[in-house]
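Exercise: predict the fold of this chain.
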Amino acid sequence: MSRTVVTRFLAVLSCVVLLACQDDQAKLAAHMESGDAYAKDKKTAEAIIEYKNVLQIDPNYGPAHYALAKAYLQSNKLREGYWELRETARLSPDNLDARLEYGQLARMAGEREEALAQADAVIAADPNRFVAHLLRGQVLEQLKRPEEAKAAFEKAVEVGADDAAPLVVLSDFLERNGDRPAAEPLLQKLVSTKPGFPASSAYAGFLARDPKRLAEAEAEYKKALEQATPEEYSVAVRTLGSFYYSQSRFDESEAVLRAGLEKTPADLELIYSLARFYAARGDSAKADEMVETATKARPGEVDPYLVLSAYRSQRGDAPGALAAAEEALKAKPDDTRAQLRKAELLLDLGYREGDKDKVAEGRTIADAVLASDPNSAEAMFVKSKIDLAEGRYDQAATSLRRAIEIRPDWAQAHFLLASALFFQNDRNGARTEAARALELEAGLTEARKLLARIHASLGADDLAVEEGRKALAENDDPAIRIVVAQSLVRIGRVDDAYAELEKIPEDKRTAEGWYAMGRVDVLKQRLPQARRNLERADSMTPHHPEILNTLLLLDRAENKLPDSVERIRRAAEASPQNAKLVQLLGSAYAASGNLGEAEQQFRRAAELDPNDIGPYQALAQLLLASGRKDESIETYKKAIAQRPDSAQLRVVLGTILEATGDTDGAIENYGEAVKLDDSLAVAKNNLAYLLAEKGTDLDRALELAQAAKAAMPENASVADTLGWVLFKKGAPTAAIGYLREAEGASTPGDPTVEVVRWHLAQAYEANGETDRARETIARAVNGIDELKKRQTDPAAAEPDWAAQIRAMGTRLGPATAAPGAAPAPASDQG
């Protein structure tokens, strides 16, 4: 081939390639244009096909990945949307909107470090994006880094001065962390700069959470109603009505709802609210009249039947509710709300009755609605019910958050989100959502029950009693009566607690109820009666560690230890992988003098659950009590020399050294354990506590304590450590919440609860709450006195911390006893 021919051939080839490139670019643009048109018309399935066609031409075309991500999210395909947002962030790092959306999804999916990285990247590119600072703060709060979270939220307020969201978020954060004085000016600023129903309603809710400021709250709620737009009017009326109802001002609640209904007689939400009001007050005739009137006034329409269905559900008539939903579908078969109402009821009945066919039918209806309308808040709500019932709490929370974004004033959605967060051990988040649900609908009894449980789990026992009793006035639930009784015991009102438990009819008294009565009997020294109640609880729920532990305490007091050893041995044999039972068997052997068997069981319990502090402490105490201090230390040092990679051996040695006063040696071993096994939360907790006690490296102590809390969210010792570290860092307000939680979660019979109370009293005093400090230290002193009564050697010296507790009690002076109060010993979990 001549040079001329070759040149001509290359030129032709170049043209072909160029034309092909031009043709691909034209196709890419055409597919993008078509996809955008489909997306604009909400035809997401077609849009997804077109965007995928773009990516077949150019897999690295960032705008197509972003458009595809949005289409997937609109179709409720969160996993696919998440992936496409991640690709967008990788391929188009300058697309800050995409990075923020990816960061929010990553946060919801639990990928907190990735979410933090995206927030930081956006802030680096554009420091004035307040949404990025909010995302950063939310992630840091989830990572248990409250001081950094606070700084991020404050920065969001600074750069987003013209927006309401940062003020609300920062205010909520401060209130959640106990700093109401700092939260209030933010809401006051919001009311003055962004006047209207949302601002006044938010501020009114804040005021209503302080029992001393209810008059101010009422005035602000009325102001919110006056400022409400026509679209906000129904919510504003129901919110004010809920406020009156929550204060037992029932006549005013009824008057507000009736006045609202007179102004907007076709508002079915108000009709339903008024019907629920009458039902909760026990006036079923008026409630029925309200709902039936709405149905008859608008025959053949869907909405009245949906109200009737919701009303029947609220009264516990699920079959009647399903029948009403069927009537709605007869009126309009293609109405998605009626379809979803039927799906929701089929799921509720199916899960309750174990009917797989009903569950499958409900799931099919919900999936079909979501496929046709991916942005349906109602469909997301129903889907979240499926996820909750099947234990997918993360997915449920994600769906509910999206539903609330669409319908922010939906009380039931806030309640379900509170439930999902509670199951995820995000108790503060759950409390916020449950309170919001009740603010919107005070008659939502299930939300009030949940809020009582949340308060109790956080150690806010006075609030648990208040909310629990309100719930009991509407619905006599034995489980909530037990929650109220347990909280009453923890605040020293033992007689009141027993009175609550006696209100539960015997035929409705569960093992938990008999156990609670037995615990109170122990406190009142009614030992024969306590044994009868505890044995009845044991017969109903065999092998329960807490019941067996309390029976062990009784057997020790009455010289019947062989009975407990045999009882616990049978339980441990029936559940050989239950670390709590194995540890309890060790305690029974130790109490019986069989130290060899006790040591063996403690070691086995630590192997079964390496992150439980109890077995390590029990083993260390056993070795020290048997006079084997030096021997045990040398034994563990030799074992570590043989197995230098064993983190557990380091923890046991650290525990023994800590118990013998060798703090530096304990810190060294706990630190080595953390290096060897970063997942060993027990080592992080113990190391954090010792660093706090020494007052050195408190930043590291806080990091370790937060990591331990994330890994062991319900452990009382871990909550105490985190609270104590925060106290040492000069943040008593933040410390109080964790220390109250630690007191409430302490195991019956554990004397360290008195140390927790001592810590809590110090935090209260530092926070200027002297009365609460006095009450708390009085409980600790009473607990020490009760412990001393049960000691076999009355002359035995008290631990150092006991003397310090007594000294603080003397300095603060006596507390005013509550009615029915009795001294509360360490094991005061009613």
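Check your answer against the key: Residues 511 and 539 are 8 Å apart (CA to CA).
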